[in-house]
Predict the structure of Leucine-rich repeat-containing protein 41.
Amino acid sequence: GLSTQPIWRKLWDDVMKTRPPNSESITCWRKKFLETFFSNVLHGVLDVSSDWRLHDRHFSPLLHSSPHVSQLTLCNMLQGAVELTAEHNHEVLENLAASLRVLKFQHLLSCDQSIRRSLVLLLHRLIHHGSVSQVSMCSWPVPDTVLLVLILTMSAGFWRSGNALTCHSSPCGLCREEDKAQSQQSTQEGTERSCNAEREGSGAEKQKRSPKEADACMTSVLSGPRSPPLRNPACEETSSEVPCGRPNIHGGSSPHSSSEQLSCHPIPQKTCRWQKPAVGRKRRCLRRSRGHYADPEDLYDFVFTVAREDNSGLLEKNRTTEGENTESWTSSSSGSPCTGHAGCKKRGGAAGILSLKAAHRFRSVSTLELFSIPLTGETCRTLSNLLSSWVSLENLVLSYNGLNANISCILSGLRALSRHPECRFRVLRVSDMFSHMPCMELVRCTLSALPQLHTLSVSFDLKNQLEGTRPEASTSCSEAEIPESCLEVLEIRFPREPLHTVFLLPVLKASKSLQQLSLDSATLPCPQELGLLLEVLKECTPNLKKLSFHDVNLAEHQKEVLLLLQDPGLQEITFSFCRLFESSTAEFLSEIINTVKRNSSLKSLKLPGNRLGNHRLVALADIFSEDSSSSLCQLDVSSNCIKPDGLLEFTKKLEGHIQQRGGQLPFTQLRLFQNWLDQDAETAQEALRRLRALCSVVNDAWDSSQAFADYISVM
């Protein structure tokens, strides 16, 4: 019943000898220590022999800490992948296959073929036969296209297990087990079908059989084949081209519990026939005749095989031999992963589209994140192709990838995915430096293509570099009616674009389930625009609970601000850096306080960056006076030029109100980031000590003088 957190915190200081980043947010020091310990040992940052407690020949740092690792980051030349796939770390890899959930790649560099082979084995074990559900890649200014596409395809559950990727033609041990189970199942099903046919076609003969003969068929079904599973001769002839194991079209199978190592030794070849439908054998022959793989040892053959068809670029989805439904994506606007857009036109055999026929489908991840990785047109076409059948994907984050017109290519793949009956895609976040089209047009196009989305976030810093190159609003997209959507969260960061409610209106009308709306860096074209927006929100979004404005000038919209604060449906309101008190009077602050006091539904009020100062902070304490019916739980006054003496006065006033209310106060959290509390450390410590006796206080050690110097230097 005793907490071990202090022990793990001390171990961190003794072993790591560094200050952990964001230590205030660490909830479990045991997990934090063991994950960091594993990563530091793996990458050679921590010398185990330097600590006498760890210098033991019976102790394996990686093996003992691996069961506690849920997140792992691989960097630079992927040395960690080579180490983890080494023979002596077999048990470590098996532990990670069960515990690891998030796999990150950061600051990657180009690597040779042997390192890529190690990466393939690692991804195959951790994703296809493991528990990894999220793959993130970040900070890769000049990506190695081969390596990038390899990670994407394997994250999507694709893998061709022939000579192109493994050192021999055999599949891994887990694939062989699946293959064995599949063969047994096929043999049993075939025997059962033949028995059923015999029973149905010769009912008269059955009655004449002896009891032993009558039971012979059932006995063969129950006992199964006596010999080991047999392989198809077609597979033997083209072992480097035929996938291994049983495909999993939906990518949602649970990880295997087998501890067999990824094997690179050939398995004995069988000469007997393996019962498979004629269709499957025909497809293999056709695939061979097309000559997609000139050199089976070349990784490029897997990553950059072009799915070229003679007429309309037909892309046939992978068909398994168990009888799954087969679909075809044609090059029409309704279903093509990537055609007909300015940013993704394919010319004469561009090596960017992956042939889904050539690869086997395994378990895939549900979250993909790409941060600060430039994506070329060819890479976007490959990603679009993968997305079109990535049914396990739930979250996609594309941040600062320089998409520009290629965003249409990505949306095309997602549109094809959304039409799949087992699609689980729910969250899309797109952010970039420059916007290729107006934000509201992109939002409309996205919701028209993906009505099942629950969360959509669109964020741009600036308009296009050359305003003349920015396309005009698409008539077809702007005028098309948006189908009713499942959208619950909508976040839009405008690149200093005017917020026209008339463009937002169709989106809100189609989003009856909207619960959270965030508008960032928008300009209001006229004084009446905000009032019109509030009317639309009240009419179209009855379920709206959270509303946020960031960096929107509301100095001249005091009436609308008060209307929002008295809205009985809103539970959280954010006015962040909105210049609320830039040209206001003391009466406006009093009206805000009285409005919040009367609103019993508002739970959170966030006012960062509005120049409250000491006197306005002290006045806000009256929200919790004895005559207040407010249920406010959280108050955020970060970045508001608050000094220690003002915070202490606010604390004393708050203590008085609590005493008048008999110690009952709904207020639970005060956020104080980036205020001037370092100007008088003693007074600040006293104020914080007394505040923490009343509520939770979240603050930071902020150097206001340095921040001011940085501000001056930027100016």
Q: What stands out?
A: Residues 1-69 form one domain.
